[in-house]
Design brief:
Family: Belongs to the D-isomer specific 2-hydroxyacid dehydrogenase family.
InterPro entries: D-isomer_2_OHA_DH_cat_dom (IPR006139), D-isomer_DH_CS (IPR029753), D-isomer_DH_CS1 (IPR029752), D-isomer_DH_NAD-bd (IPR006140), D-LDH-like (IPR058205), NAD(P)-bd_dom_sf (IPR036291)
CATH superfamily of the largest domain: NAD(P)-binding Rossmann-like Domain
Order of helices and strands: EHEEHEHEHHEHEHEHEHEHEHEHE
Oligomer: single chain
Pfam family, one: 2-Hacid_dh_C
CATH class of the largest domain: Alpha Beta
Number of strands: 13
Bound molecules: nicotinamide-adenine-dinucleotide
Protein name: 2-hydroxyacid dehydrogenase
Radius of gyration: 22 Å
CATH architecture of the largest domain: 3-Layer(aba) Sandwich
CATH topology of the largest domain: Rossmann fold
Enzyme class: oxidoreductase
């Protein structure tokens, strides 16, 4: 049996991992806490650990894990900035991740935010529950015939673009590595970033967070936009300069904002803080706007995505324990090949 300690788990993680490992020789130990040097001792005698986006797997933590006999760090997410890969290599620890689980889940959530925001569904729902059936203040606009802009046409951006084409929208896209054949096939037009900002009623962000994309939406970009533009971000919080966003919401330059990610989400998103004091003034301000819709990094949260994350994680844990190759494209540090 491979004893695997799983950090920062929620009930849905546990269910998915258990369901995916019915036929596997894995003994799970599910932890609420995150993995860091302070909690690494909880992995004593384990063969592997399984971590998520907010665990802190730095060199000191990896040294402690290696000392206690851990051989494999299995990330149950795509991003791997939480793990010191050089240190893992030095210490002879294998590291794997789940590079893609369901781009459909994330794209569909982006569109859900857009529809709910434009047609003011949360407000309408709150009203009718109070037996207020008035329609004042609930006017939206037809997406059909409007222009949407997609920043980043990777796996998720492409699906979002195709869904919006299905609504009868004109879709513009910007990506430093355009996929011309795909664009032609789906009637999507590539343009430069400034034209995209200028011409669209809806802008949706689907780029990874890199030094180039950090604050890709800032005061100067927002000034280029048509008054009333809706911005959707399901990618990474720091793609948007939050202070500039708040200013543009106050002046009405932006017509609405749908966020599944937020610059300072760590320690807030994924947690139940009800009854506590929110210390983030920018987030508190964002929550006051009627035309801002926020979800707490849940775009990936479908049964299919959780199932795929669990399937790949279990397959790699099993392969690692047997000294067999990991699934293709999932190894960040592979001891068989390095
Ligand atoms: P991907 O790697 O398939 O695509 C990213 C695209 O962005 C690529 O085509 C790339 O060329 C492009 N790009 C890079 N720099 C750019 C720039 N400066 N301007 C415009 N485009 C640029 O990634 P993906 O699977 O589509 O995921 C996109 C992002 O979605 C991820 O990086 C991640 O941050 C986010 N994500 C969020 C969730 C969630 O639950 N909210 C889940 C999964 C992924």
């Amino acid at each position: 049996m491979l004893r695997t300690v799983v950090y920062d788990t929620k009930p849905y993680d546990r269910e998915a991992l258990q369901a995916a490992s019915e036929d596997a020789s894995i003994e799970w130990q599910f932890m609420d806490c995150r993995l860091s040097i302070d909690t690494a001792a909880t992995a004593a005698d384990a063969g592997a650990v399984c971590v998520f986006v907010n665990d802190r797997v730095d060199r000191a933590c990896l040294e402690a894990l290696a000392e206690s006999g851990v051989k494999h760090i299995a990330l149950r997410c795509a991003g791997f900035n939480a793990v010191d890969l050089d240190a893992a290599k030095d210490l002879g620890l294998a590291v794997t991740r789940v590079p893609a689980y369901s781009p459909h889940a994330v794209a569909e959530h982006a569109v859900a935010l857009l529809l709910a925001l434009n047609r003011k569904i949360p407000r309408a729902n709150n009203r009718v529950r109070e037996l207020n059936f008035a329609l004042n203040g609930l006017v939206g606009f037809d997406l059909h015939g409007k222009t949407a802009g997609i920043f980043g046409t990777g796996k998720i951006g492409r699906i979002t673009a195709q869904i919006l084409r299905g609504f009868g929208m004109r879709v513009l896209a910007y990506d430093p590595f355009p996929s011309e054949d795909w664009a032609t096939e789906h009637g999507i037009e590539y343009t430069d970033a400034q034209s995209l900002a200028r011409e669209c009623e809806v802008i949706s962000l689907h780029t990874p967070l890199t030094p180039e994309t950090r604050h890709i939406i800032r005061r100067e970009t927002i000034e280029l936009m048509k008054p009333g533009t809706i911005v959707i971000n399901v990618s990474r919080g720091a793609l948007i300069d939050t202070k500039a966003l708040i200013e543009a919401l106050k002046t009405g330059q932006l017509g609405g904002v749908g966020l599944d990610v937020y610059e300072e989400e760590e320690g807030v998103f994924f947690e139940d803080l009800s009854g506590q004091i929110l210390h983030d003034d920018d987030l508190a301000r964002l929550l006051t706007f009627p035309n801002v819709l926020i979800t707490a990094h849940q775009a990936f949260l479908t049964r299919e995505a959780l199932g795929e994350i669990a399937r790949v994680t279990v397959a790699n844990l099993t392969a690692g324990a047997a000294g067999e190759p990991f699934l293709p494209d999932t190894a960040l540090v592979d001891l068989l090949t390095s």
